[in-house]
């Protein structure tokens, strides 16, 4: 009897202590310690990093409104709906807002596709907003070359606000953002910053960082150690349209490649094209579409060819001002593009079996 009541008391105590700890958000303490949920910037700043692109708090702006702009394409002010940002898209037409990688220091197209296959998230041309406030450069690599004549690219490459505006003008076909709208989007981005647990840090790594937080000399090296654990600027490599070559018959027995192709078709192409969701052109999950796509892809330089479209993209045309952004090598590798054809042709020739 006595033993039981002691156990009960212990259980009650641990609940109280547990809740006590939970109601103390890590970020409100002076950090010499951190947990898995601690926002990464809190740790970085304690290690001496500056330049966090925090949102300004101005009247009307909030992370909730930012989330509405990003996911719905409009928000409200004084109880009234704002004008839509774009006639055609929302930000999530092209960008995810969730993690795209198991390990943010390993960001190959293969890593990204495996993660999309596992989680079911869309597989898109643009980079995710998750962790975007932890990046310091935007529109990198070949985007910088593509827009080298546009003076705005200089600003956009090092400043997150300018990057948002640059995307709006050049990709999202959006109207201009008012200041409170821009700050709202940025506030929303801050809710998507990395937490300590998003980085692949071992227990030993974390102990080392905790020690460094208490000693002035070790801070700089701890900072660069942490920065080696996530990619701070998304690389971008444009590729030429590949020459079409029919896959070998053996390839149709490669279930991993067929599955990759299926994930790309369903979580990328159909994300925008199923029932003309974000485009004026419809792709379906059915034989006629597969036949048409297969045939088009065999023709060199044909605008409906998947090889052409994914590498060149499609600029806005008369009447329709929506455009399809190209896929860089980082967002769709050459092997993945072949896997897409493999899957589509298997469906077209009715030789696809569910893997
Ligand atoms: C039609 C597609 C499309 C839409 C819609 C779109 N974007 Fe983009 N965005 C892109 C592409 C393509 C890039 C360049 C590649 C990348 O993200 O790495 C880009 C890049 C960005 C970047 C820089 C990312 C980086 O790490 O380099 C920001 C910031 C951004 N977009 C914000 C927005 C916001 C905010 C919206 C909605 C208001 C939006 N985008 C809507 C296609 C789009
Ligand atoms: C982010 C959204 C998006 C994704 C992802 C996407 N597309 Fe598109 N696609 C568009 C838009 C927008 C157009 C422009 C034409 C339009 O709206 O009619 C377009 C155009 C096309 C066209 C040409 C239609 C024409 O009118 O000439 C084809 C074919 C096509 N896409 C196939 C694909 C395939 C295959 C994939 C997957 C690898 C894909 N798309 C992925 C948005 C997308």
3D architecture notes:
The chain is mainly α and 355 residues long. It has 2 domains: 34-236, no CATH class; 249-348, Cytochrome Bc1 Complex, Chain D, domain 2 (Orthogonal Bundle), CATH 1.10.760. It is 45% helix and 1% strand. The chain has 14 helices and 2 strands; from the N terminus they run αααββααααααααααα. It has a two-stranded antiparallel ribbon with strand order 1-2. Helix 3 (63-72) packs across helix 8 (179-190). The protein is globular, with a radius of gyration of 24 Å. 31% of the residues are buried. It binds heme C (2 copies). One heme C is lined by residues 70, 85, 89, 91, 93-95, 125-127, 132, 135, 138-139, 143, 163-164, 167-168, 171-172, 174, 185, 234, 236, 325.
């Amino acid at each position: 009897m006595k033993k039981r009541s002691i156990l009960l008391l212990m259980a009650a105590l641990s609940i109280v202590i547990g809740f006590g700890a939970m109601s103390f958000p890590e970020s409100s303490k002076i950090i010499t310690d951190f947990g898995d949920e601690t926002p990464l910037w809190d740790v970085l700043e304690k290690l001496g990093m500056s330049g966090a692109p925090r949102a300004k708090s101005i009247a009307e702006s909030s992370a909730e409104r930012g989330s509405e702009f990003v996911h719905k394409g409009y928000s409200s002010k004084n109880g009234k709906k704002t004008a839509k940002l774009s006639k055609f898209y929302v930000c999530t037409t092209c960008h995810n807002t969730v993690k795209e990688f198991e390990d943010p220091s390993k960001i190959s197209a293969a890593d990204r596709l495996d993660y999309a296959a596992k989680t079911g998230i869309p597989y898109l041309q643009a980079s995710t907003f998750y962790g975007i406030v932890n990046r310091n450069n935007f529109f990198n690599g070949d985007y910088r070359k593509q827009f080298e004549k546009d003076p705005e690219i200089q600003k956009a490459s090092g400043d997150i606000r300018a990057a948002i505006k640059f995307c709006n003008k050049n990709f999202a076909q959006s109207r201009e953002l008012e200041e409170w709208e821009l700050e709202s989007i940025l506030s929303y981005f801050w809710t998507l910053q990395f937490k300590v647990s998003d980085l692949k840090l071992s227990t030993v790594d974390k102990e080392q960082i905790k020690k460094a937080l208490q000693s002035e000399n070790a801070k700089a090296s701890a900072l660069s150690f942490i920065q080696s654990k996530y990619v701070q600027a998304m690389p971008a490599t444009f590729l030429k349209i590949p020459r079409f070559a029919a896959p070998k018959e053996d390839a149709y027995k490669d279930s991993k490649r067929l599955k990759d192709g299926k994930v790309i078709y369903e979580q990328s192409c159909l994300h925008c094209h199923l029932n003309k969701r974000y485009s004026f052109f419809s792709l379906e999950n059915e034989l006629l579409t597969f036949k048409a796509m297969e045939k088009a892809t065999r023709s060199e330089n044909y605008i409906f060819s998947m090889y052409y479209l994914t590498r060149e993209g499609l600029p806005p045309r008369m009447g329709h001002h929506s455009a399809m952004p190209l896929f860089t090598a980082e967002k769709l590798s050459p092997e993945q593009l072949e896997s897409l054809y493999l899957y589509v042709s298997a469906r077209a020739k009715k030789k696809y079996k569910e893997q």
